[in-house]
Structures are given as structure tokens and as C-alpha cells.
Amino acid sequence: MTEEPSPASRAATSAPEPSAISHTLSPVPGSVTPHRWRPKVRVTTLLGVGITLLLLWLVLYPNLFVFVDSLRARGEFTMEHYQRFFASRSEREALWNSVWLSGASVLLSGLIGIPLAFLFSRYEFPGRTILGGLAAMPVLLPPLVGVIAFLFLYGESGFLARGIQELFGLALPPWRFTGPWAILLVHAYTMYVYFFLFTSAALSRLDRGYGEAAAALGASPVTAFRRVTLPMLAPALVGASLLVFMTSMGSFSAPYVFGGGFRVLATQIFVSKLNGEPAIAAVETVVLAAVSILFLALLQRYEARREYTGAGKGTVSGLHRIRLGRRGTILLTLSAWALVGFLLLPHATVLLVSFVPEGTWTTEFIPPAWSTANYTSLFSESELLTPILNSLRMATIATLANVVLAFVAAYLLVRRGFRGKRLLGALVILPWALPGTVLAVSLATTFSVNQPLAGRFLLVGTFAILPLAYFIRNIPLVTRAAMTSFRQLDPSLEEASASLGADWTTTMRRVALPIVLPGLAAGALLAFVTALGEFVASVMLYTFRTRPISIAILSELRAFNFGGAAAYAVLLIALMAVVLLIGYGKVSDGPTQ
User: Which of 99, 205, 479, 584 is most enclosed, with most CB atoms within 10 A?
Assistant: First the structure.
């Protein structure tokens, strides 16, 4: 069911625009424009069946083991463990805390990320592109490193608390950085980037003609934003909301370090496993996944009722950037630099700690000694660089696989109607609904034996298991980004390509892919940096030869070598920053004309 567009949107849609492909494809003599173009049924059927079977094997099949464990007691199938779960007050409290915390994380992340996207996409000022890339850098802090950075910066023994305590002569720290509000601060800081990147990519594809048509019809800027711009951004906002909710539901590091007595399901699973109750841990995992899937179903129903297309015809792309006067530009530039500087404080904290020699910083406000010994060791010992190279190789392999699968899956889900479409949509998002621990356990169980006829191969202990885990984990992220772009791609462009004699493959390669590329690139960037810093799945699946950088950081932390761990983290952040700074410019500029 398609929502009735506003008068401004109808007027903009009816305005004739030149074809985006007339100069790239030559017409075929005698060709006739079809009423409604569709690729050959055989091609899309084969793609749909192939993608669905692949996801059934890699996503659903391993997790069936977890569901079976939740129903098994004393060798029989029973609901006993579910009865224990819902009868326990602590378990119900953990479930409710997970739900409201995830909802609040979506709200706070949106309130930060959406205005930032408009600031760096719509206003023109010196350093806009560089600052926009830096504004996305909070995603570069892997969960474990980010939590430690917040602990050193905002914790009761961190820089800020010690500084205030020393400045005002307080006997005790001015606050305790624990509880749900501390978790929310960490979530909002690290997850607003989903809204920022997805909204930026969507803004880059908006045709300014829609806003001009709305203004010509007498709409005020507020009305044009509410009736034209905001509805066209709905797919990106829904996609970002879904990813933030799923990430928050499965968040482990922040609740574990800052939660105190605050219970959430992700930490309850860990506690149940430590207490030797795998069946209860399996029930908690199933409940956690069920809540996430319910949220997914609600968003999909919303999307089905609000479809918007025609965000760009391939001619004039992106919102018109506003140029302020000299004073306004100076004020805006200074404000942007101050805002980005505040967002980079945790990164600065990690950088500072990386220069602290081991065992020299105890209770002082400022570390008493500084040294480059941590970096000297990192670059002088080849063995210490092995985790970096491992992470780069594995993240690259996983991300390339994500891009290919996401493009095909997004096309099938948005453009095609076929049996099994809902199943494919659920399989695409399922990995994000499951905690990383569950993904690792399910993969370790399924691929620890060699039974080819049962679809089980011996991958545990090999190089392939970690890229496979990263690939599965990031399927929802890249696919949602690609789906957002496909929803904003006018189907008439594909029909025009067919009328000029192009086959389906050529149309996808020369028409759809260039226009969908900004959103796809945004998802791929996030997937790559996420894979580089992946910790939860890595700690359960790595071997000494395949250890990634997150495991190297953990090893240094366990040895209380915070400077060495911070040096690793700085190098990881630098690698991620290079990727984002290169990619953000391409995403923010929109498709090539």
C-alpha cells in the first residue's frame, strides 16, 4: 500500500527530466517500450532460490542448535526452561531493561545523528568534507576499546572526574559512571553514526527539484521538510533505527562494564553460561532474538505502508547546500570544529594513554611519564603486526562478500515479488537479532565436524571461520543500506534501460549499481570497520595464527599493559579513519553524473 504523496511531491514527480542513461546506452532500432519492465523470470528465480538457500544454511541452520537446546531437559523436549525464565523476576527485569534501553538508544542516536547529517550535507563551509568524515569516527572505537576509553575519560577515576575533584578539592569523585544512563551515553555516542551515515547517503540522492517545486507551490521550508524531505528519508531512518535497536539489544561490553546491578539479557546469557546453565542461556538467547525479530516485523509493516520512490532521476543530485554570510560561515565553522572535537575526546584519551609506560600511572590526574616505547615495540617486532594484517585480510574478504550478497538480496527484496520473499527478508536481518556470542557458539557447533551430507564442514581452527563470522554478522547492515538506495531509485530508469535494448545484467551494472552505490558504500564502510574491531565472535573462534587485533588488545589488557593496548587501538582507529575519510567523500558527493 503506497501512501498518497503531498501536492509538492506530486508536482515534483510530474516535472519532466532528462534520462540519466540516454548518453550511455544506444537505442536498438525497432525496439518497443514495454508497459512494465521485468527481467527474465529464470534469472531472478535462480537468484532468489540461491540466496535463500545460502542464508538458510549459514544463518538459520546453525541457530537451530540453540533453539533445540532451549527445549531440551534430561534428554526430553519440554517447556520447563521457559517456565523458569518467565517465573524469575530477575529474568523479566533483564528483558524489560533490554527493550527500553534499546528504544532509548534509538531515540538519542537519532537526535544526534540526523541533525549532524543535515549540518554536513546541507551547509557549505570550509572543512565540511573532512569534518563530516571525522564526525563518523566514533564508529571506529570497537566495543571493548570504546568502553575502556569512556572509563578513562568519564569514569569516577577518569580524567574528567579527577580534574573536577582536584579543582574543587573534593574528597570523593563527583559522580559514579555506572547504571543505565552510563550505558545510554556509550550507546548514543557509538550508534548515532548509523543515523549520520544513512541519512547523509539518503540526502546525497535527493533531487533538489522536489524542494524547489514545493517552494514554487507556496510551501514554507518547514512544510517542505515535513511533507517532502522527511518522507523521502523514511527508508534511511527506518534502516538506521533497526540497526541501532538490534545493536543495543545485543550490546555486551557497555552493560558488562558500566551496568553495575543493571541487568540486560546479553549479560544474563553470559552469567548463565558461567553458572553452568546452558539451557537457561539458550532460552534467554531465544527470547532476545524474538524481541528483536518482533521489532523488525513492526518496522517492515511500517515500510510496507509508506513507500516512496523517485528520490533522484540521475540529473541533479543532492540537496542544495546553503552558503551563509561571512560571519555566519565563521560561526558555523567554529561550532562544527568544537562539536567534532568533543566527539573525538574518547579517541584523544586512547591516544594519550598509548604514550603511558607500563605501570607508571596510578592516582595522578595527568600521567607522570610519557614514552613512545609502546609504538616502538609494536613496529619493531613483526609478531605484534600479525594481528593487524590478519584483521585487514579477514575484514576485506568478509566485506566484499557482503557487498555482493547485499546488492542481489536488496534488489530481490525491493524490486521483485516472489514466493519466499518474507523468508528472505527475515533471514537477511536475523544475524543482527542474535548476540555475537550466540553466533560464535552456533558456528563453532555446526562447523566443528566434517559431515558434508549434513551441510557441516570442518572450519573451526582454520582461517575461514572468522571471515565467515564477520560476513554473517554484517549481512543485515550492508543489505539494509542497499535496500534504502533501491527504494529511492525510480524504477522507470530500469524500464528505460530495457527499452534501449539493455539486458538485465547490463541494466544492473550500468544503471542500478552507480545510483545505488552511495548507500551500498555507506553500509560497506560500516561493515568493514565493524569487522576490523569485532571482538565477541573473535574471542571464541580465533586461533593463535588467526588472532585479530581485538584479541591482541584483550591480551594486553589482561597483562595490565594499558599503554600497549591503547597503542594497538590507536593503530586500529587510524586504519579505520583512512577508510572512512576516503569513503565519506564518495558517499557525500552522490552518484557520478
Answer: 479
How many CA atoms within 13 Å lie on the side-chain side of 377? 17
What is the number of other CB atoms lying within 10 angstroms of the CB of residue 8? 23
The average pLDDT across 389-416 equals: 90
Residue the block writes with cell 546469557? 269
* pTM as predicted: 0.70
CA distance 315 to 321: 16
Which distant-in-sequence residues (6+ apart) come within 8 Å of 292 by Cβ?
Answer: 245, 246, 249, 250, 432, 433, 434
Read off the C-alpha cell for 329. Answer: 560561515
CA distance 489 to 87: 49
Closest CA to 520 of 465, 576, 477: 477
Question: Grid coordinates in use for 539?
Answer: 574471542
pLDDT on residue 3 = 43
> Is residue 458 within 8 Å of residue 559, measured between CB atoms?
no
pLDDT of residue 26: 42
Residues making up the chain, counted from first to last:
593
Q: Exposure of 366 by Cβ count < 10 A (0-12 exposed, 13-18 middle, 19+ buried)?
A: exposed
Task: Give me 268's grid cell.
Answer: 544474563
* Cα 488 to Cα 592: distance, rounded to the nearest angstrom: 16
Residue 466 CA to residue 533 CA, distance in Å, equals 12
